[in-house]
Amino acid sequence: MSRTAERPAQVGPAAVPAAEAPQVLPGLVAGRSPTIVVEHVSKWYGDVVAVSDVSFGVAPGVTALLGPNGAGKSTMLKMLAGLLAASSGSVRIHGRPARGEPGTYRRLGLVPEQEQLYPFLTGREFVRLNAVLQKLPDPDGATDRAITLVEMTNAAGRKLGGYSKGMRQRVKVAAALVHDPDVLLMDEPLNGTDPVQRAGLIGLIRELGAAGKTVLVSSHVLVEVERFAENILVIVNGKLAAAGDYRAIRDKMDQHDHAIRIRADDPRRLAAALIAEPSTRAIRFDGAGRLVAETNDVRAFSRAVPAVARREGIRLLEVQAVDESLTSVFAYLVGR
After folding, report:
1. What is the pLDDT along the chain (336 residues), one digit of tens a residue?
2. What is the CATH number of domain 254-333?
């Protein structure tokens, strides 16, 4: 596999290819100072290239690291957190190397995708352990503040082994925030959360960005990103495919076919009604009895679905983008 990256897609004013404007890193608006600087970073394991010659900058606020599963997002976040060394290139946070610098680690908070929890500890004990490891002068006070931020006060005395996936996600966020870092790295933090938990975490992410912290959140779900990030970095096959304003890049993506999975109480009647909509390209049924609609105008189709369901007296139970369609859209961005 080649280790030469393709140029990021130029979408919107912030998506500036490095070759044309070397003074502005992809992902940054001209004039903004980056907290995180990644320059020509690659990571490979033998002949397998996980990240290939990626450069970007991240300024204070919320930035999404977007890409299909297996794109290299987790590898990139581990290099930013100093858990992995880059095979080539440099990763700097506040002008200092991300790896091997205790001072840098103290300014970082990491919410990993992998579970690194002790089931015999309570939620409070786990968060307090992180406060003690950070040598905070008041670990109990810091623990209380972090647990309150993620709305886990009522469950803080329970053992982690009895937590749901969504509760574990929130206690990991609390542990990452306990020392009040100014850089927060979050790897798929919304996975496994229910709608209420998801809304709470999205609100917290927005608040942290508004407070001037640098928050980088990885996701493979476009509709999630729309709710918390204005700026995104798109990684496909280990390469930076696009960087810049979310809305400009989303407009570019929406010009191409998407697949939407729909679950309803009368799917066949809904399918018959939707096929007449101009934004519907095709409709099929999957093995679970849900219908999968293909559309080349996501916004028009998203407006049509509830309108048609209401007109026909059909109850919608689920409307969700199909991940495989996102993969094809991401592939388009790198010209494959």
Report:
1. 434 334 454 443 334 333 333 446 888 766 678 999 999 999 999 888 999 999 999 999 999 998 887 889 999 999 999 999 999 999 999 999 999 988 899 999 999 988 778 999 999 999 999 999 999 999 999 999 999 999 999 999 999 999 999 999 999 999 999 999 999 999 999 988 888 898 999 999 999 999 999 999 998 777 778 788 888 898 888 999 888 887 776 666 666 667 888 999 999 999 999 999 999 999 999 877 889 999 888 778 888 999 999 999 999 988 877 755 555 555 555 554
2. 3.30.70.100
- Boundaries of every domain in the chain: 36-107+181-252, 254-333
- Pairing of the two strands 316-321 and 291-295: unpaired
Collapse the DSSP code of 303 into the 3-class scheme (helix H, G, I; strand E, B; otherwise coil) and give the result: helix
Q: What is the DSSP string of 217-230?
A: EEES-HHHHHHH-S
239-245/231-236 β-pairing: antiparallel
Which has the closest alpha carbon to 204: 217, 220, 191? 217
The tokens describing 85, both together, are 């060394």
Distances (CA, A) of 237 to 55, 58, 194, 321, 336: 15, 20, 29, 20, 11
pTM over cut 0.85: no
- The DSSP 8-state label assigned to residue 175 in this structure reads H
Burial label for 234, CB within 10 Å (0-12, 13-18, 19+), is buried
Q: Give the separation between CA 237 and CA 331, rounded to whole angstroms.
A: 9
Tokens of 305: 């679905």
165-177 helix and 139-149 helix, angle to the nearest 10 degrees: 130
- C-alpha dihedral (87, 92, 98, 102), degrees to nearest 10: 150
CATH of domain 36-107+181-252: 3.40.50.300
HSE, CB side, 13 Å, CA atoms: give it for residue 171. Answer: 32
280-285, strands of its sheet edge to edge:
280-285, 291-295, 258-264, 316-321
